[in-house]
Amino acid sequence: MFNRIIRNDILKSKAITLTTMIFVAASAMLVSLAAILVVNLSGALDTLMTQAKTPHFMQMHSGEIDTARLSAFAEQNSSVDEFQVVEFLNIDGSEIILGDNSLANSVQDNGLSVQSEKFDYLLDLDGNVINVSNGEIYVPVSYMKDNTAKIGDKAVISGKEFTVEGFLRDSTMNSSLSASKRFLVSSNDYKEIKSLGNTEYLIEFRLKDMSALSAFETAYASAKLEMNGPTVTYALFRMMNAISDGMMIGVILLVSLLVVAIAFMCIRFTLLAKIEDDYREIGVMKAIGLRVSDIKKIYIAKYAAIAAAGSILGFALSFVFKGMLLKNIRLYMGESENSSFAYVLGIIGILLVFLAIMVYVNGVLKRFRKISAAEAIRFGKSQEQNTGANRFTLNGNKLFNTNVFLGIKDVLSRKRIYATMLAVLVISAFIMIVPLNLYNTISSKSFISYMGIGNYDLRIQLSGNIDNSSEKVAEVVETVKSDQAISKVAVLTTKTFKAKMEDGSEENIKIELGDHSIFPIEYSEGKAPAADDEIALSTIYANEMGKKVGDVNTLVIDGREKELTVSGIYSDITNGGKTAKAVFTDNSAGIMWSIISAELSDKAFIDAKYAEYADKFDFAKTSDIDEFVTQTLGSTISSVEMGSYAAVAVALSITALVTLLFMKMLVAKDRYSIAVMKAFGFTNSDIKAQYVSRTVFVLIAGIVLGTLLANTLGEKLAGLVISSFGASTFNFAANPLSAYLFSPLMMICAVLIATKIGTSGAGLIKISENIKE
Q1: Are the CB atoms for 161 and 153 separated by under 8 Å?
Q2: Does residue 390 register a pLDDT over 70?
Q3: How far is it, in rounded angstroms, from Cα 73 to Cα 56?
């Protein structure tokens, strides 16, 4: 009997049943996708770093190196399991041609390496350690993704020809956030070309126990070993590899949770509409002695069937989309060894959605106990109390026409009913606006100021270990400052000093010296250093040292102690996130690198000036800051862009379907009221105008509240995502047109179309059948 009742009921209300199933399927699909992506990302990353034997500690170094002293340190330190020094031959991008493409405009430090002997292996796309032959070259996988190179291309490096034999995964330099990229060549080819580049060193350690990493870092610094370059640890390698896909997964996870919440509300819509349709039948069933539990079984069975079908469909759809979303993970990291577990977790997520729906349905059906059999049989609908708009009277209305007035009055009279729709519209606006704002923020030029880099047009970087570096820096500065096309110039020089820790030990600290007010960055706390006795610390340095604004940081400069007050704390993505800023002058420490930043009076000349300076200063790395941002954050930006467009599509679909369901529920609930209005002479167009007024009134409130929520709670949630790769302070840089004009307009169109369709049944209501005593 149950099967026949459920089948007939589903056939009678195909549209509502299908819409409900779509929401359940969307919820199940997103939850399943999030679970599958999280497990695959984590598993693929673990597999990559295990196969490559990623270093636990890497110190990049430019300049002279004492390998014997490093080896002695490694042997004496009980924490060290393996140690090696890997050479990295830095080649200017203009000297690297892959097929028809030059890397002259690359902001990366591109260089050649040979395969490591002990660990930090370079892997092919099948996860195998590469054995390269003479004349062959393996290219970083990022140049495969952007179509810079393909297998079989001729590669010319500083005049020497190679054949692109394949592409490599590099567990330490895969990410676009990494400033360097390694090309793999044979030992013979490396020796032949070594004199044509600048040799840098990767000093690498693997420890017996990762928990000893902090103590090992302190021991390395205390031993005063080579540290002329960034220091990177295993955790940072993992974070940089995961960040791009991790942000996309974060957006999907946020949207999936909100869609599940909306699915519950939609089930509430459809269930209340069905109860309203069946009100008299429910009264009859109660009158003939059927128990509430028996009546509930009919509805529970129906929604169990819908939830089961939707969950299965959602799981199937997750397989359709997972390939596209896993593509980037598979390219950069390979297959996950936990892929089978991902499906298990996806199934568990879907089962949780199904169970949550059934518990929720059971809770909504408790209202059966409040239904009076006599009232239901007599009136055929619930007798609700309309309160809350008594002062809002038609004879006092001077602002709206009659239909608009009656629509708004109905909303104010039945706030509890419209509150659910309002909540859905607020969440839909939130789903649409937050990912869009996040994408617009990280793709904007100003975002770089949250990452420890000022907002300027051109960046010229010189290494401290090039010949006559001071003279060359002076030459660049003089040329740039005398250029009439340039309005502002800043010179920042990075040096290494010793900082005294709280336990009395000393640790190397890299400080950027110069005027930091010319191209300011964003500070999460405090401000930029302005006096000689002030210093600003990056978030990672501040956390490691236990410093906050106002604390004193003691440096050892040329054998003398210098006390500096922490003026501010900022985010940074450069140098592994470990930097500091100060304005004092110093001639004792060696220069690691210098950066000359410039702003042009007319932005139209940026490309021309970039080309001019790149050609003139061939000993420096010249970058257009827009290109720097694109190449550094490009993969992350594209992932968030994909997630934001998907969120817009989901939000619009939700808005249209929910409005459709809500209108059908209202029409069913208002049959008597509609019949009365028709009896008084209201036309079908008048009645539809009233329903449009109701939805538009609720929609405007929903958009306003959703926008406010997106710019407060949404900004904080986005800040949590952004902070995962170094930005401890964050504000949305929204595109007003997309966030506050196009998005609301699209929602309004979706609502109006759905309202028109949803209220089409109002014209079929007959006066004689619905006005009864």
Answers
A1: no
A2: no
A3: 16
* Strand (E) or helix (H) holding 5: helix 2-12
Q: How far from chain centre, in Å, is Cα 133?
A: 40
Query: Contact, 39 vs 336, CB < 8 A?
Result: yes
Q: Quote the tokens at residue 627.
A: 């290109």
Average pLDDT, the chain: 82
- Strand partners for 735: none
Residues in the chain: 773
The amino acid that residue 31 corresponds to is V
β-pairing, 80-90 vs 198-207, is: antiparallel
- Locate 62 and state its tokens: 């430019």
Give the pLDDT confidence of 637-673 residue by residue, as tens digits: 777 787 788 888 888 888 888 888 788 777 777 777 7
Rounded distance between C-alpha atoms, residue 571 and residue 618, angstroms: 31
Contact 498, 555 (CB under 8 A): yes
Distance CA 575, CA 566 (A): 20
* Residue found by looking up tokens 């002479």 in the block: 681
Residue 476 is inside which H or E element, if any?
A: helix 469-481
Which residue matches tokens 């007599």?
378
Assigned token pair, 149: 């190179």
Mind listing the pLDDT tens digit for each residue in 602-627?
Answer: 888 888 888 888 888 877 888 887 77
Amino acid present at 617: F
How far, in Å, CA of 257 to CA of 77, rounded?
48
Q: Which residues contact 660 (CB under 8 A, 6 or more apart)?
A: 15, 19, 754, 757, 758
- Who wins on pLDDT, 741 or 274? 741
What is the sign, positive or negative, of the torsion defined by CA atoms of 247, 253, 254, 256?
Answer: positive
pLDDT at 564: 92
> What are the backbone dihedrals phi and psi of residue 583, each rounded to the nearest 5 degrees, phi first?
-120, 0
d(CA 43, CA 29): 21
Give the percent of the chain with pLDDT over 70.
88
DSSP secondary structure letter of residue 123: B
Closest-CA residue to 178 (of 95, 54, 38): 54
If you average pLDDT over residues 709-730, what whole number do you get?
A: 69
